[in-house]
């Protein structure tokens, strides 16, 4: 703890202390994202129920699209958990569960750069699943619409590669 010998130092300490405590303003965002995971869980089970009830009357393509929707929902929920855990640990406070047997191996080790890579990787995976769903039921789309969807997916892929290259260059620059 610093000594506060002058009014300027006391003011500086108070300002810095207030800013540091302000990190807790992010906690409600992470709680909101946890609520979003709960909503995805409800959507997941609703989709699963509908698929179960219509499995014998549905075409294979429709069933496949339904399964891909479940995969998509699960990927999105996993992405949100990565953001919640990593964001909380990077910006608010360390999670005090070090000795818990189910603690994910990556927890506490994912910095902001790692979070960006995990985020873009999940976005690319979600985009790929969405693109696959589009191609399975592509008879209703024009070639232009399909080209746009492929272009958007490629944009995510290229962004991911560029993020990775940037982080690689950045790590080499900081290590030397």
Description:
This protein is mainly α and 176 residues long. 76% of the residues lie in helices and 0% in strands. The protein is built from five helices and no strands. It has helices spanning 7-21, 27-54, 60-91, 112-136, 143-175. Helix 2 (27-54) packs antiparallel against helix 3 (60-91). The protein is elongated. The chain starts with 6 loop residues before the first helix and ends with a helix. The model has no long low-confidence stretch (mean pLDDT 84).
Secondary-structure blueprint:
Layout: H1 7-21, H2 27-54, H3 60-91, H4 112-136, H5 143-175
Termini separation comes to 33 Å
Using the alpha-carbon principal axes, give the shape.
elongated
**Main sheet makeup:** none
Average of pLDDT: 84
Count of discrete alpha- or pi-helical segments spanning 4 or more residues:
5
Class of secondary structure makeup: mainly alpha
Tell me how many strands there are: 0
Rg, rounded, reads 22 Å
Q: What sequence of helices (H) and strands (E) makes up the elements?
A: HHHHH
Unreliable spans? none
Helix content: over 70%
What is the percentage of strand-forming residues?
A: under 5%
List keywords for this structure.
mainly alpha
Provide a compact summary of the structure.
The protein is an all-alpha fold. It has helices spanning 7-21, 27-54, 60-91, 112-136, 143-175.
């Amino acid at each position: 703890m610093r000594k506060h010998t002058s009014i300027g130092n006391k003011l500086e300490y108070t300002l810095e202390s207030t800013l540091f405590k302000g990190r807790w303003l992010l906690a409600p965002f992470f709680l909101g994202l946890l609520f979003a995971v709960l909503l995805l869980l409800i959507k997941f089970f609703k989709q699963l129920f509908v698929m179960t009830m219509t499995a014998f009357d549905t075409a294979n393509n429709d069933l496949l699209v339904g399964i891909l929707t479940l995969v998509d929902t699960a990927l999105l929920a996993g992405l949100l958990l990565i953001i919640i855990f990593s964001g909380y640990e990077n910006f608010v406070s360390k999670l005090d569960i070090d000795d818990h047997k189910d603690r994910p191996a990556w927890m506490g080790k994912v910095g902001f750069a790692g979070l960006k890579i995990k985020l873009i990787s999940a976005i690319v995976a979600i985009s790929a699943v969405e693109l696959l769903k589009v191609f399975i039921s592509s008879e209703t789309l024009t070639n232009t619409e399909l080209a746009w969807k492929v272009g958007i997916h490629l944009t995510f892929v290229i962004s991911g590669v560029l993020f990775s290259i940037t982080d690689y260059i950045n790590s080499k620059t900081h290590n030397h």
